[in-house]
Amino acid sequence: MELETQIQACFLQLRAEGLALGIDELLDALKLAYAIPSDQLPTLLGMLWCKSLDDHMYFKSAWQNTETSPKPDTEPTLPDDLINPQPSNESSELNSSDMLPGEIDKTEPETIGALPLLVPSRAMSADYAEFKNYYPVSRRFMAYTWRYLKREMPDGPLKQIDFDRTVEIITRQGFYLTPAYRRSVIDHAHLVLLLDHGGSMTPFHHYLRDLVETAYFESTLAQVDIYYFHNVPETSLYFDLYFTQRVALTAIIEDLDENTSVLLVSDAGAARHRNDPIRIIVTEDFLNHLRRNTQSIAWLNPMPRDRWSNTSAQEIEQFVAMFPMNEDGLTQALDVLRGL
Amino acid sequence: MVVFQRRYLGTGKRTVEPVVGAHDTPEPYIPSDGLRDAVNLAVFLERPLLLEGETGSGKSRLAYAVAYELGLPLYVWSIRSTSKARDGLYTYDAVLRLHDVQLRQSKGEIELSRDPSNPAHYVQFGELGEAFNTPHQSVVLIDEIDKADIDFPNDLLTVLEKPRRFTISETGHIIEAQHVPIVIVTSNKEKGNLPKPFLRRCVYYYVQFPDSEDGLKQIIKIHHLDKFGETPNAEIVNKAVPLFLNIRKTKMQKLPGTSELLDWLAALHYFGELFPANQLPDEPSRKIPYIELLYKLRTDLDRLSTGA
Questions:
Q1: A14 CB within 8 Å of a chain B CB
Q2: Considering the entire predicted model, what is its pTM?
């Protein structure tokens, strides 16, 4: 019975960590618990539940946490330690109530001293955990989403046998000469990625890298062009992320046609809470230039939506479809690019 | 306690009576205890076993070893970038059928082993399809699943777990697995992670490279015996294995695996004269004989020459 509750507790903890586990995995684990000596159970559960070396680390700590099950007792001890000094304060206060001048001096430093002890430790650990798990769009999801940009047209080489038509021709003619061929389908999708690099985008560089790599190497898109800019897209952009090879905007625009989708990635001032009127005007101008050649333009903002208000992002959102960079946002941006 | 009809012990020796059509070539293979348990766990839970790990750490060979030891048939499905999930179940040869009809019409009634009016004659089962059809349990190796299209693993889900059946749409037949096959899947993670729904259903095991001298020597011994019928020269092995481990410790883009080690040792033994053990260098250097068997990238070789 105890083992069963431990398995359940561990299962819930791992699910909370984000491991992909379903009810089948829990049932199989319980099945194992009856079938296998309990000393072998942890390793076998690891094989069943963990799908990477990272998962194994989570599992190990979760299993140990749940093993010593009366854990909740240990947690309240922390506040207890902090509360304990307070009664002593009061007592000292009572004792020293005779000495009026010393009273104020004594209590004040002690209350101030207690505060920083408690607050930063909690805040820091919480921040760290959140930052570590902040990965709203996985590579796989990106690779998957690019496929929706496909623009396939049957205008490739004439090389696929069309069985239905071949049979139809035979029945019509009464004899067989050659098979009927069909043009193969070719993808004409053209994706242009315009990426804000450096400065306030620095924390999001790994997203940009993932976007570029998945679009370039793991998608079936016919043509992918990537250009970089810093803060605001202007009359020229750059081929490389070190801003050494300049490309004129006009050259980029010449390449855009009805099969082109343009995806911009920038925080638009939201990361540092900036509201810059010039930035807004320049961006609007830039977007208008693009619009002469293609209508499918979308913007991904790595900052969450609630951080856009009162920044340039809020203004820019008025004239371009802007989405936060999470799984939903990426899907919606892709819908815009596909013209849905 | 579970009673296994066929339990994988990892000894390399067959202890049970083989079924008809069993894989009969002995496989020299030394699984770690964890890997052995993982196989039995996958069999017990009727889940696919997913193996990841460095190239050349013996992921694929496990399936051969399991099939031999348990006396079961083995179906190897090597995945390519163009593989579709349906290929592993069945293929339907429409062109052949059309051809047969034409042949009948032009040459009159000739003897054919196939009847064009029966579409079932043009169905060719794939590896998983065969495994479903055999009257015994079997081992299916889905090799290098990461080579395939991104959707491929998800397309396999319905056949790898209950109800374990598929329909041949051309004939309308439903093929249902008579026995749950032991499915071993290998992946090199070339195209990132496999999809989560697929991962969830697998038993996962990461095959570690046997980074110990004794482990490697044991592997060399059984492979050498199997291939050349004699034990390897102890002097060479005692000198070559530490050198090989030292090579693996250097910063390399492409680490040599066990298969490279075995090839290299075979060359040291039989390619020309037996290589004198005392001429083997102690540290990685350009002087290593048959260096091209261990170093597969130019950058790795260049780094060796500059000594960096």
A1: no
A2: 0.69
